[in-house]
Specification:
single chain, 304 residues, alpha/beta, Rossmann fold, 2 domains, three-stranded antiparallel sheet, 12 strands, 24% strand, binds zinc ion
C-alpha cells in the first residue's frame, strides 16, 4: 500500500500568479473507503491548505493528492438504484434549472444542448420540455444509464477529456461541476471547442467568498462546529465573480455575465424562504454577487 502523498500546486490555475494567502484548512476523512479503496482511505487524518491568489481572487488547494485518479476514486460511490431514481424525481434543484433555461432563452433559441455532469437526468428532462434537443455527458456509468433510460436522451458516459463529440452544440451547461475539477480552465476550453460558433455556455458554481462568510458565521453561532469549505477536497475550486469572469475570458469566451445563482430548495428544509430571499436580493441589486448573501454564481458566456 502506498503512503498518502501530495504534489504541491505552485501557480494559480486561473492567472498563473504565485502569491497566495491561506484562507482555509481542508481535512481528509475517507475512512468509509477502507475496504473499497485502502490507498484512498490512507489520506484520512491529512490536511491541506486552501489558498487565495492575491492577483485574481481565485482560491485553490496548496497541494493535491498524488494518488492517481484521486477524484474519480472518491466519486466512485456504489449508489443504489432507488437513490438514483429519487435524484431524478427530486425537485430541489428545479429553481436553478428553470433559471438557467430562462437565462439561455433570453440569449438564444433552443437548439442542441449538452449537459456536462448530467447526473440522474432531471435537467435533461426539463431542457427537453423547454424545446431543447438535450444530450448528457456523465462520468458515473450508473447515473448515465439511468438518465438515458428515464429521459430517452442520448447520455454519453465519460468526462470532457474522454468525450469525442460528433456534432457541435448550441448550448452547454456545467451545473455544480466546475468546483470539483482541478485546472478548471482545461474544462472550460474543452467545452468551448464543443460549442458551435456563437453558442452559449451556462455555468453554476458556489460563490467562494460568500460560502466562507457563511461557514464563519455558522462556527460562531454553533460552538464546536468546524467551519469548512473544502474537507476531502469536495470543492477544489473556489471562484469569486471576478475570478470566474477572468477564467471564462482566458478560456476564450466573450460577453461573460455573472449574476447570483438560484438556490437549492431541499424539500424538508425550513430555510427555503431565507435562501429565496437572499437570492432575490442579491440578484436584484447592482454588484449583488459581492454580497455575502450571494451563495452561488451563475455565469453565461458566448463562444466567438
Ligand atoms: Zn490567480
Amino acid at each position: 500500500m502506498t503512503v498518502a502523498e501530495f504534489i504541491a500546486v505552485d501557480a494559480c490555475w486561473i492567472c498563473g500568479g504565485t502569491s497566495f494567502e491561506p484562507i482555509d484548512d481542508a481535512a481528509f476523512d475517507l475512512t468509509e473507503y477502507q475496504r473499497q479503496d485502502p490507498d484512498l482511505a490512507a489520506y484520512s487524518g491529512r490536511h491541506v491548505s486552501i489558498q487565495r491568489c492575491t492577483a485574481c481572487d481565485f482560491a485553490q488547494p496548496a497541494a493535491l493528492p498524488a494518488l492517481p485518479r484521486f477524484f474519480d476514486r472518491m466519486y466512485d460511490q456504489r449508489w443504489s438504484d432507488d437513490w438514483v431514481a429519487r435524484e431524478h424525481d427530486a425537485g430541489y434543484k428545479d429553481l436553478i434549472f428553470a433559471d438557467i433555461l430562462s437565462g439561455l432563452a433570453r440569449r438564444t433559441r433552443p437548439g442542441v444542448l449538452l449537459d456536462v455532469g448530467a447526473h440522474a437526468g432531471r435537467f435533461l428532462r426539463l431542457a427537453s420540455g423547454a424545446g431543447w434537443e438535450a444530450e448528457g455527458l456523465e462520468l458515473n456509468p450508473k447515473t448515465a444509464a439511468f438518465a438515458a433510460r428515464a429521459t430517452g436522451a442520448i447520455v454519453h458516459q465519460g468526462n470532457v477529456h474522454t468525450f469525442r463529440p460528433t456534432r457541435r452544440y448550441d448550448a452547454i451547461t456545467l451545473i455544480d461541476v466546475l468546483e470539483h475539477v482541478p485546472q478548471p480552465i482545461d474544462v472550460m476550453s474543452r467545452v468551448r471547442d464543443y460549442l458551435a460558433p456563437g453558442g452559449w455556455l451556462a455555468v453554476k458554481v458556489p460563490n467562494g467568498p460568500a460560502q466562507r462568510a457563511k461557514e464563519r458565521l455558522r462556527a460562531r453561532l454553533r460552538p464546536g462546529y468546524r467551519a469548512t469549505i473544502a474537507d476531502n477536497l469536495v470543492h477544489v475550486n473556489h471562484f469569486s465573480a471576478a475570478s470566474l469572469t477572468r477564467a471564462l475570458n482566458v478560456a476564450g469566451f466573450r460577453d461573460v455575465r455573472v449574476v447570483a445563482a438560484a438556490p437549492e430548495l431541499p424539500h424538508q428544509s425550513g430555510t427555503g424562504w431565507l435562501r429565496l430571499g437572499a437570492f432575490r436580493l442579491s440578484r436584484a441589486v447592482p454588484r449583488g454577487t459581492s454580497l455575502p448573501l450571494a451563495f452561488n454564481l451563475q455565469a453565461y458566456a458566448q463562444r466567438d
